[in-house]
Design a protein that fits this description.
Elements (H helix, E strand, L loop, with lengths): L5 E6 L9 H13 L3 E6 L11 E3 L10 H13 L8 H8 L3 H7 L8 E3 L4 H11 L4 E4 L10 E3 L14 E5 L3 H4 L2 E7 L2 E9 L14 E4 L4 H12 L7 E8 L5 E7 L15 H9 L2
Protein name: ATP-grasp domain-containing protein
């Protein structure tokens, strides 16, 4: 019987509220079809991982709610020299959205962002002035699933959970309300598929738990070029990546996030249903 590498996929804690099992089943099916043995390990307490050929943090959902445990896990994975995809330096860099400043410094068109150490009314007013806008979105620098993300209209109070906390302040990009947020997916550096996610009426968040819906999207040259620039600026080439972008008032795309840790990959929209994803993972063994 041919050798079958063992892969440990890190999954949420049992009390995590979002439904992750259907997406896990799609990824696991693709990996199994490629000849890999897939096992689940809870990311907050994964146990001994030494017997695995690869560790994938693809469902380490909720890491932004326990940052100390997350960075502790990255330290352990690095110290033990365990094979991880994406690599630990990439995961660490991608954990804090300060990476947006790194990308901007390398010429990537990112959503304009002001990193505020402790948000209050004066800091918010200063950020709005620097951004040249009155309506903004604020989010934690370490975040996921739109946790702690708020739209703040002119004159509105700062939400209690953000007051005095480090927050990223960004303009409300017009494209999110008209065209939606575009996501391009790459496996082993090669483009796989793209989708557009649109928010529910009256909302600005595109995640499914807030009523957002996605459809397949044809990635134009401008989107592919922006994605390629962002991927080239990462510390190391990622085996899997989701590149989220949104348009400004003129329709020019700006990178919103570069997802290299635990992105939803929407493999049901991939023409090959995840074969390229599985091949990229297998190649990393």
């Amino acid at each position: 019987m041919p050798y079958q590498p063992r892969v440990a996929i890190l999954v949420p804690a049992p009390d995590y509220e979002e439904k992750w099992q259907p997406a896990f089943a799609r990824k696991a099916a693709a990996l199994t079809a490629a000849g890999l043995i897939v096992e689940q390990r809870v990311w907050t307490d994964p146990g001994d991982l030494a017997g695995h050929d690869l560790v994938l943090p693809l469902f380490a959902w909720g890491y932004q709610r326990n940052v100390a445990a997350w960075y502790g896990l990255l330290d352990r994975l690095g110290d033990e020299g365990l094979p991880v995809v994406n690599p630990v330096p990439v995961l660490r860099w991608n954990s804090d959205k300060a990476y947006l400043a790194d990308l901007a410094a390398k010429g990537v068109a990112v959503v304009p962002t002001v990193d505020v150490a402790a948000l209050d009314a004066a800091a918010l007013a200063d950020a709005c002035a620097r951004l040249g806008t009155e309506e903004v979105v604020i989010k934690p620098a370490i975040s996921g699933g739109a946790d702690g993300t708020h739209r703040i209209a002119p004159g509105a109070a700062i939400p209690a959970d953000a007051l005095g906390q480090r927050r990223l302040v960004q303009p409300l990009m017009p494209g999110i309300l008209t065209e939606g947020e575009v996501s391009l997916f790459f496996f082993g550096g090669r483009f796989s598929h793209a989708i557009v996610k649109r928010p529910a009426a009256g909302d600005f968040r595109v995640q499914e738990q807030f009523g957002g819906r996605e459809t397949a999207w044809e990635a134009k040259d401008a989107a592919r070029t922006l994605a390629a620039m962002a991927l080239a600026a990462a510390p190391l080439p990622p085996a899997y990546a989701r590149v989220d972008m949104v348009g400004d008032a003129a329709g020019r795309l700006h990178l919103m996030e570069l997802e290299l840790i635990e992105p939803s990959l929407f493999l049901h929209h991939a023409p090959d249903k995840g074969a390229a994803f599985a091949q990229a993972v297998y190649a990393a063994v």
